[in-house]
Amino acid sequence: MLLQPTSSRHFEDFRHVEPSILTKSVLPVGSASAAAASSSKAPYFERRSLNTVIMRAGTSKGLFIKATDLPASRSAWQHILPSIMGSPDPFGRQLNGLGGGTSTTSKICVVSQSTAPQVADVDYLFIQCPIEGEKLDFTGNCGNMLSGVGPFAFEEGLIPPSVLAPLAAFAKTEGSAREEKIALTLRCLNNNQLIRSTFLIRNGKPVEFGDVVIDGVAGTGSPIQLDFLDPAGSMCSSLCPTGKPVDLLRVPGEDLPIEVSCVDAANPFVFVRLSDIDDTLRGDESASILERHSPRVELIRQSAAVIMGLAPDLATAAKTKGTPKICLVADPLPGSDAHVLSRSFSMGRPHPALQLSGGVCLAAACSIPGAIPNQILLNRQKMMPERLKFAHACGAIEATADVEMDSRSEVGVVVRSTSLFRTARRVASAEAYYLSPTQ
């Protein structure tokens, strides 16, 4: 039997059907059901576009968007941004969008000149786009994506003229071919945190090539120094939200409590001994092996969210996987020059490295007398090193912490700032497309 070509009228029938309907069932062309579908009030979807820049920032990659290119109402972003990233995707690949199918490649920064010029030069909002789900997460911060905010803002003309004036004067006298440092104060709108970003510029563009190596990133790049100013209490009330360096956490379904250290510096983190998850783990296991423990690790994270005051109950904590984050810590492997070994989780899965905010928070935790990371650190040496080194799944990350002893603090210390170095690279400028319903 010969198959007859489908008429254009039949394609018109499908133009008005919700795309998700087409993935659930196939309606016989010309049937009563198909006719009913075409005559329903389902919206017509029209292709629209949004200007974006794709950047590799630290050990993450994502979209950088000027705030003026988005609708004023964040509720409108809920359809636009997941569609661009390719979410929700039950297959976990984000094949239908720009996302990379991992938590570290499904991130967005919305950037603008600061609305509080007396406080900061640039404002930015970090958004974690889920992969299987579609609800955007506006909680917390991403230190890796943060490293791209300053260079993006500079190249997109979002820097206040008062900041650029000295650079212009320098270029006139010294020549534009010379490299010059620029320091910007960034304000994270997720938690009002302030970060100083210092990087090099040359010929009116951020310098991207240099000799700085980041474990987990191929090649080398130009240094971007990030100073987190007064990082404690980014989302909670203080450096240690429970008022104690160590808590005995009750986890549903478990007879015995587990020791945790709840710390909030740059981002809220829960630190747990790796051996308390499984005493056979060393820290050099593959992500697939570590992922076998994901359900229990996630339940610990949810339980900690409640005692940290970040969620009223476990059900609410389960809906926001990005806050708090959780990191398993242990003694470094034999032969390592690191001070602490870390295996962190992101959005319920093992992280391929260590979040930059994780490096900040871990540095702070190492400075808190009695906290689990502090105990591990002092197992190997008697004094706090000037520069801390944390081993992770694909290498190590270094951080410094400016800490003062303060008897008035609940935990005896005050963290003034923490500093790390990252690199970033502009990968592409893109006109990203999404489908928008119209009547």
Describe the protein's topology:
Layout: H1 8-15, H2 19-24, H3 32-39, E1 44-57, E2 60-66, H4 74-85, E3 107-113, E4 122-128, H5 143-155, H6 161-174, E5 180-188, E6 193-202, E7 205-206, E8 224-229, E9 247-249, E10 258-265, E11 267-273, H7 274-277, H8 287-290, H9 294-307, H10 314-319, E12 325-330, E13 340-346, E14 349-350, H11 356-366, H12 372-380, E15 388-392, E16 395-405, E17 413-422, E18 424-438
Helix pairs in contact: 1-3
Q: Would you list the SSEs in sequence order as H and E?
A: HHHEEHEEHHEEEEEEEHHHHEEEHHEEEE
Give the class-level CATH name of the largest domain. Alpha Beta
Q: What spatial form do the alpha-carbon principal axes imply?
A: globular
Tally of structural domains: 2
Counting DSSP H or I runs of 4 or more residues, the number of helices is 12
Q: How confident overall, as mean pLDDT?
A: 89
Radius of gyration: 24 Å
Sheet with the most strands?
A: 18 strands, mixed
Secondary-structure content class? alpha+beta
Helix content class = 10-25%
CATH superfamily grouping of the largest domain: Diaminopimelate Epimerase, Chain A, domain 1
Low-confidence stretches: 1-39
Family: Belongs to the PrpF family.
Keywords: Isomerase
Protein name: Methylitaconate delta2-delta3-isomerase
GO molecular function: isomerase activity
Short description:
With 439 residues, the chain is α+β, with helices and mostly antiparallel strands. It contains twelve helices and 18 strands. The chain has an 18-stranded mixed beta sheet that branches.
Give a quick set of tags describing it.
439 residues; alpha+beta; Diaminopimelate Epimerase, Chain A, domain 1; 2 domains; 18-stranded mixed beta sheet; disordered N terminus
